[in-house]
Amino acid sequence: MYKAVFLDFYGTLVHEDDVFIEDICQRILTSTSTQTTTRDIGNYWWNSFSSNFQSSYGDNFKTQREIEISSLADTIAFYKSSENPKELSKILFKHWQCPQLFEDAKTFLESIRTPIIILSNIDRKDILSAIRHHGLSLDNMITSEDVKSYKPRPEMFQKALQKYNLHPTEVLHVGDSLTSDVAGAQRAGIKVAWINRRNKELPQSVSPDYVVNSLEELIPLLV
After folding, report:
1. What is the pTM of this model?
2. Do strands 141-143 and 171-175 pair parallel, antiparallel, or not at all (unpaired)?
3. Three-class SS of residue 46?
4. CB 171 within 8 A of CB 184
């Protein structure tokens, strides 16, 4: 049915960094005299990250590592914390290079016959380290560094279609983010499967072509 699968990596094949983000927020909380909560710290950090992330493309492109350190430094300064942003960032970078695989990931990768192309917002060095760490056979890849932009912008999808000589109707994109993956792929005219591992409520304004709780549910479509 499909000639290729565009596959997100973090949050789809491997775990996201939520646990480590919570740990970092806790460290900022215990090192500030400001009356706040880890939730407020996390929200401020996310807003700072998102602002930098959305403006990072073309000549203004910054790597995920650069954006992470910058947004964390902004958060630490805002809360007058004594923590060091570069030291705290190392916690995330270590996870990015050695993330935990989801239980269904290897079964999915070993079962499908449709060619896989990884589309990832994470820096190339980090995702290559993660792939080597788990001994995965994933040779085809487009990262944010290759196109100087991030999903949901169109450049990564367009580059993958062009490089692998594919038409949007010949591809299924698989990912966990409603903004980066679902919205980004659909704007490029690509059908998308949303991995909803946490049983989140789907907003009425969003309509993925497939909604699944596990990668294994997609195997029949891709054998």
Report:
1. 0.94
2. unpaired
3. helix
4. no
The pLDDT of residue 204 is above 90: no
- pLDDT surpasses 90 at 82: yes
Percentage of the residues of the chain whose pLDDT score is greater than 90: 98
Amino acid at 200: K
Q: What burial class does residue 211 get, using C-beta atoms within 10 Å of its C-beta: 0-12 exposed, 13-18 middle, 19+ buried?
A: middle
What is the distance in angstroms between the CA of the first residue and the CA of the last residue of the chain? Answer: 9
Taking each helix axis from N to C end, the angle separating 38-54 and 64-78, rounded to the nearest 10 degrees, works out to: 140
Q: How many CB atoms lie within 10 A of CB 32?
A: 17
User: Residue 131: in which H helix or E strand, if any?
Assistant: helix 124-133
Q: What's the pLDDT band for 1 if we cut at 50, 70, 90?
A: confident
As a whole number of angstroms, the distance between CA 24 and CA 168 comes to: 40
Own/partner pairs for 14-23, CB < 8 Å, 24+ apart? Answer: 14/99, 14/100, 14/101, 14/102, 14/105, 14/130, 14/134, 15/99, 15/100, 15/101, 15/102, 16/176, 17/92, 17/95, 17/96, 17/99, 20/91, 20/92, 20/95, 21/45, 21/92, 23/91
Q: What tokens appear for 167 in the block?
A: 């038409």
Segment 47-61, tens digit of pLDDT? 999 999 999 999 999
Rounded Cα distance, 100 and 35, in Å: 34
